[in-house]
Structure formats: C-alpha cells, structure tokens
Design goal:
263 residues; alpha/beta; TIM Barrel; two-stranded antiparallel ribbon; 12 helices; globular; binds ribose-5-phosphate
C-alpha cells in the first residue's frame, strides 16, 4: 500500500490500538436536518475531542468545522437522493477527487446498494472512486447500505462487504448482525459498524462491545451518540469499549457518571 494512503488510514484507524471511533454526522445528505443535527456545528463542538474522525459531507465540513481543527475527515462523496424521492439506492458521486484533496480529507466514503436495482451503478462508482483514490493516495470507505426489502443478516452483509473489498475498498462500514464473525472473517479489509437507529444507551454500548468482540475494528456511529441525552458521555463510553476493551458495565458507568456530573 502506498505511503500516503497508509498515512491517511493511520490517522483514522489509530495505530496504538488498531481501532477507531468515527463520528458519523453525514445523515443530512439524504435526510435533511436530522434530529440532533439541526445545527451540526453545535453538535460537533463538544464531541470533537473524542472523535477519531468525522464522517460528513463537503457542505457541513465547510460550514461547521474549523480548518484549524485537528480531526481527520472521512468525506461522504455519494448522494443525489432524498428520503422523499423515488429510490434511495440511486446514488451517484457528488464530489470530485480533486476537491476531496483540496479539503485535505483522510478518506472518502460512498454507499453501495447490493441487491437493489442500482446495484451495478453503485458498485461501478465504488470501483471508479477506488481508481481515483489510488492516483492520490486517498483511502475509500464503502458503506453497505441496506434497502428496506433486504435482510440484515450475515449472508447478505458478508456478500456486500466482500464485494466492496473485492472492488478495492480499503475499509468497509456495515451493520452488526448475528454471526458477525463470519462477516469479518470473509472480508479481507477492516470492518466498522454503523450504530443504526437510536436505542437505549446501554444497548448501544452492547452493540459496540459485541461488534469489536466479533472482530470489527470499531464504530462509525451517529444517532446513538448525538441523539443521546448525554452525547459526550456516550462517545466517551464507546471509546472505553473500542480502545480500552472495557466491558459494557464499566462503559455504561462512565456514561452515567458524565451524565450526572454537575456542569
Ligand atoms: C448512512 O448511510 C450514514 O452513512 C450514517 O452515517 C450511518 O448510518 C451511521 O450513522 P448511524 O450510527 O446513525 O447509523
């Protein structure tokens, strides 16, 4: 692997632990002003010291993150659809590699929609993005989006992750599922998990714990952090699990402690 690409990846996946806590705040690219992300700048501010990287769009990067902030950026470069449109799967590339470079990103991310009517287009976009990234040493994160009609099971997610890796993705983001070890084993590149819809804090910590115990190198978590009643407590607790191999009980206690700390 080329030096620049390795260097960028190591800004996201911390060499000290081989793991990562990515903060996903890209939801607006198809959902608009998501709950908890109405004013991204305010959401990000207290969380920034605890995020190993920010996953977000070009517009929110420009508007909500200071160029002086020392946080690696994973730039979402796919989109073109909305939650009220015909098909979420019909995504295309939304940012050129030149602009990603100008923005000094550490990686670019796009969604693939395996099994959807736009499977081929999104997979070819991934291959194209990998080619472009190879030219400049920019790693590519493939996000295995799951359509309503698809099962979030190990068989399907293994298929998605493996195809993403075969097409050259440098790391993959997917969902946790039963038999997740199979998904990780059959994917030759590192896997991170998305948090999914907001659930109870303890359950979200269990999800992070199970994912890393089953081989994920970390999380790219959004709503279960920024929609929590104590986002800072949640991201700190997730870090304990991911980087310090804490048990759920210990991490949950930290979340509670931060939540009840007088301000
Ligand atoms: C979805 O495609 C987006 O990339 C989100 O960033 C992703 O779903 C992770 O966020 P959450 O933990 O809220 O699911």
């Amino acid at each position: 692997m080329d030096w620049g690409l390795k260097n960028r990846l190591s800004r996201i996946i911390k060499p000290e632990t081989g793991r990562t806590v990515m903060l996903a705040i890209d939801h607006g690219y198809f959902l608009g002003p998501t709950s908890g992300l109405e004013e991204p700048k305010e959401t990000i501010k207290p969380l920034l010291p605890y995020a190993d990287s920010l996953m977000l769009t070009r517009g929110i990067l420009r508007a909500s993150v200071n160029a002086q902030d020392d946080v690696p950026v994973v730039l979402r470069v796919s989109g073109g659809t909305s939650v009220i449109g015909k098909s979420l799967a019909n995504e295309g590339l939304t940012v050129s590699m030149e602009d990603a470079l100008r923005l000094n990103v550490s990686a670019v991310a796009l969604s693939i929609f395996v099994g959807s009517e736009y499977e081929k287009e999104t997979l070819l976009s991934l291959a194209h993005l990998v080619d472009e990234g190879q030219k400049y040493g920019i790693p590519v994160l493939a996000v295995t989006a799951v359509g309503k009609e698809m099962n979030r099971d190990a068989r399907y997610l293994s298929l998605c992750c493996r195809i993403a890796a075969e097409l050259g993705a440098h790391f993959v983001k997917t969902y946790y599922c039963e038999n997740f070890t199979q998904v990780v084993k059959e994917c030759p590149v590192p896997v991170v998990i998305a948090g999914g819809k907001k659930i109870e804090e303890k359950a979200a910590l269990e999800l992070a714990f199970n994912a890393v115990s089953d081989g994920a190198i970390g999380v790219d978590m959004g709503r279960n952090i920024f929609q929590s009643d104590c986002p800072v407590g949640m991201i700190m607790a997730v870090r304990e699990i991911v980087h310090k191999k804490a048990k759920v009980k210990q991490a949950f206690e930290l979340y509670e402690e931060i939540k009840h700390k007088p301000r």
